[in-house]
Amino acid sequence: MASDKDSAVKKSSKLISLDNIHEITKKRQQAEEEELNGSGPMIREFNHENVLQIWADYADSIRENKGGTASIMDGIKPMVSDATISLLFDSDLQRSRFNEILPAFKAYIHRRVGFNPHMIVDVVQQAEATQKFFTPKDKLERLMDLNPALRRFQKELGLDLDYD
Description:
This protein has 164 residues and is mainly alpha-helical. It has helices spanning 2-16, 18-37, 48-62, 67-75, 92-113, 136-146, 148-157; strands at 79-81, 84-89, 118-123.
């Protein structure tokens, strides 16, 4: 029975020892450094294809923790010109979600290309929603606005819509 107690003490002391805590902490730090530094190979040429690859790599790297932002990145294709990356988002919400990770993305791209490209982040202006015409009168008015000859034909031929 004493041997069972001694082995239990040895097992528990091994789990709680400062050496084990230090070792676990060290492994975590190494994993974080590998994640931070493991941003992929250095890119020598700053062009559209390479930036698209870096963009996709970064989206994949954040997918587990920031899946929504990664999905937004999947739908946006950066445009590259000289040392500038332009991003056009469909809404202010998408832009604000991306702005949350912008500093980290800038650091990531700096590690990959060796410099900080200028980032232009903007929202595409959406056209106003087109008016929907549900009633026959609304449809006729819209058609007459598009083609004034219809109004003239309606008057000359005495045509009226039956609105009942």
